């Protein structure tokens, strides 16, 4: 079975079993790096996230919980260009004073991105990552905005062994049916530290424009985690993300694995 066949098989299994994805860097990081798979190589990531948020609203205590499981498949078209497919599935729950008022689940918006590393020298890497988000999620259930969105990210990586540092600056055209902001910016930085052979510690800070046009508080987060290589081509990871202000979820637990072949 060749690599293209493997990609098709894994993607079909993911959709059939509602086993989806988020298109990020070395999970659990949110900030992407400039690394690509190399021509003809494939990486499959399975990621999970559980988040919880509690806030007062009109004299009531409102608690929101969300879970997401996802699959990201990256295919090396050339040594410098990857095609990245993300298929996410979500579970959403809202409770008011302990009573469940909303419970939804389903496929969220599928993403398709192209990562192009256009510069690499002396430990520096620069890349661009344009993408499109397809309205496959049901907007009535809160699983998507109901319209096709577009994004472009600038990515920079600097490696100084045993450290690596990453910067992302991005723009997302958030077309939607909910009267939310359409122009969303993103800025984040991350670092990785090799502790021992096969084990890395990671940290991440970031902020993104709030789609709620009634608020000028923009969600910000801090993240810490570990990535462990069980084999040269198989990694597992675990991370904790903390909201630094009110619009961001109070905390999130992230876990996943990456398989390269």
Question: Would you spell out the secondary-structure blueprint of this structure?
Answer:
Elements: H1 3-16, E1 42-57, E2 60-76, E3 81-96, E4 99-107, E5 110-121, E6 124-134, E7 149-160, E8 163-173, E9 183-196, E10 199-208, E11 220-231, E12 234-243, E13 251-260
Antiparallel strand pairs: 1-2, 1-13, 2-3, 3-4, 3-5, 5-6, 6-7, 7-8, 8-9, 9-10, 10-11, 11-12, 12-13
Describe this structure in words.
- The chain has 261 residues and is mainly β.
- It has a single domain, classed as Autotransporter beta-domain (Lipocalin), CATH 2.40.128.130.
- 5% of the residues lie in helices and 61% in strands.
- It is built from one helix and 13 strands.
- A twelve-stranded antiparallel β-barrel has the order 1-2-3-5-6-7-8-9-10-11-12-13.
- Strand 9 and strand 10 form a beta hairpin.
- The radius of gyration is 18 Å and the shape is globular.
CATH superfamily: Autotransporter beta-domain
Through-space gap between termini: 12 Å
Return the CATH class: Mainly Beta
Structural Rg? 18 Å
Summing up helix and strand content along with how strands pair, one would put the structural category as mainly beta
**Element order, helices and strands?**
HEEEEEEEEEEEEE
Proper CATH architecture: Beta Barrel
- Mean pLDDT, to the nearest integer, reads 91
Shape: globular
Number of helices: 1
How many DSSP E strands? 13
């Amino acid at each position: 079975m060749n690599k293209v066949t493997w990609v098709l098989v894994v993607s079909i299994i993911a959709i059939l079993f509602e086993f989806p994805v988020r298109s990020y860097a070395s999970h659990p990081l949110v900030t992407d790096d400039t690394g690509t798979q190399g021509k003809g190589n494939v990486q499959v990531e399975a990621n999970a996230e559980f988040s919880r948020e509690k806030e007062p609203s009109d004299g009531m205590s409102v608690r929101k919980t969300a879970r997401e499981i996802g699959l990201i498949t990256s295919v090396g078209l050339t040594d410098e260009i990857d095609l990245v497919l993300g298929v996410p599935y979500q579970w959403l729950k809202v409770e008011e004073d302990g009573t469940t008022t909303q419970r939804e689940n389903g496929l969220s918006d599928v993403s398709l991105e192209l990562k192009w590393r256009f510069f690499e020298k002396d430990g520096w890497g620069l890349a661009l990552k344009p993408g499109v988000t397809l309205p496959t999620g049901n907007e009535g259930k809160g699983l998507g905005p109901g319209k096709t969105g577009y994004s472009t990210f600038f990515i920079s990586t600097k490696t100084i062994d045993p450290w690596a540092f990453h910067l992302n600056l991005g723009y997302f055209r958030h077309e939607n049916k909910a009267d939310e902001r359409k122009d969303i910016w993103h800025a984040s930085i991350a670092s990785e530290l090799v502790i021992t052979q096969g084990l890395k510690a990671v940290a991440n800070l970031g902020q993104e424009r709030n789609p709620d046009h009634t608020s000028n508080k923009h969600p910000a987060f801090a993240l810490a985690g570990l990535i462990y290589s069980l084999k040269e081509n198989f990694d597992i990871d675990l991370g904790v993300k903390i909201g630094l202000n009110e619009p961001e979820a109070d905390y999130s637990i992230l876990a996943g694995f990456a398989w390269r072949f």
